[in-house]
């Protein structure tokens, strides 16, 4: 069993299974290149974004037998039980569905409010939450980007964080220590994933690419991952899984899956992409992995 500390507070030292991958410093800006997920389209990514052919690309296949055990601080999740700032915006950008999280006002900051953030483990600093997005397939046995122990789950959620020492995500993507992404997996189940309800029930508001809408609800990050065994995770240095493929990401993957019902995943599959086809199979092919 994978064992590590990953609590909302604390700094205990316990065993963690970790992939050690060479850190490749990169600087690259985001551009507006329109990309696709077919095999032929993915092969063309590097023509427009050279880092898509880099040495520390994501996603990868996680093989527990090749993981390396290390002692390190816990991952602290600060403010994950707090409701996210209102209003949240749901966006279909033609490649995924994302939840944009607004910044706090000066008045809110003056009252002592703060954005949820994470630190500890192998994270090089404190990382503030930026957004949430998803990857899914048109079949139940595919959709997640990372493969864990030869299993590709139905869907994968990414909670994107920015290193607080950078003023915005675009700036952070130019540095190897700029971004942290937490990856959570969804497995088809008879029961609804309760944490996903607030999002899945609003997908009808953004049926087509470039649609966006304000959610009339807010929620906490901890509600999205309720029931996950957060004492188990893998971490490695990698990249964005979409162009520009910036090698600026510290990944933290939680292998304990979250439930998603057939009705919930069908709502994702009813969305449309930039080509007016079904928005499905929006996951990148697995990338080579060198373990040191």
UniProtKB/TrEMBL annotation:
Pfam families the record matches: Carb_anhydrase (PF00194)
Alpha-carbonic anhydrase domain ranges (all copies): 33-292
Coiled coil: none
Superkingdom of origin organism: Eukaryota
Protein name: Alpha-carbonic anhydrase domain-containing protein
Native organism: Glossina pallidipes (Tsetse fly)
Family membership noted in the UniProt record: Belongs to the alpha-carbonic anhydrase family.
One Gene Ontology term, aspect cellular component: cytoplasm
A molecular function (GO) term: zinc ion binding
């Amino acid at each position: 069993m994978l064992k590590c500390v990953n609590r909302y507070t604390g700094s205990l030292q316990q065993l963690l299974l970790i992939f050690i991958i060479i850190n490749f410093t990169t600087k690259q800006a985001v551009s507006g290149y329109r990309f696709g997920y077919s095999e032929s389209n993915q092969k063309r990514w590097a023509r427009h974004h050279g880092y898509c052919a880099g040495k520390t690309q994501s996603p990868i296949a996680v093989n527990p037998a090749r993981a390396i055990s290390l002692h390190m601080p816990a991952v602290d999740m600060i403010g994950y039980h707090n409701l996210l700032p209102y209003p949240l915006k749901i966006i279909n950008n033609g490649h995924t569905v994302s939840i944009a999280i607004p910044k706090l006002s000066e008045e809110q900051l003056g009252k002592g409010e703060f954005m949820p953030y994470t630190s500890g483990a192998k994270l090089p600093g404190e990382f503030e939450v930026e957004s949430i997005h998803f990857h899914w397939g048109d079949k139940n046995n595919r959709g997640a980007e990372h493969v864990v122990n030869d299993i590709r789950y139905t869907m994968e959620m990414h909670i994107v964080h920015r290193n607080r020492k950078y003023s915005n995500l675009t700036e952070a993507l130019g540095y190897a220590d700029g971004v942290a992404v937490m990856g959570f997996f969804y497995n088809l189940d008879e029961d609804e994933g309760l944490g996903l309800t607030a999002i899945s029930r609003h997908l009808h508001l953004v049926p087509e690419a470039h649609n966006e809408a304000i959610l009339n609800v807010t929620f906490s990050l901890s509600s999205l991952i309720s029931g996950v065994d957060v004492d188990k995770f893998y971490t490695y240095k990698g990249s964005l899984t979409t162009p520009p493929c910036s090698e600026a990401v510290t990944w933290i993957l939680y292998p304990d899956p979250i439930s998603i019902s057939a009705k919930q995943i069908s709502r994702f599959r009813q969305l449309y992409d930039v080509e007016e086809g079904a928005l499905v199979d929006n996951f990148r092919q697995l990338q080579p992995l060198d373990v040191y």
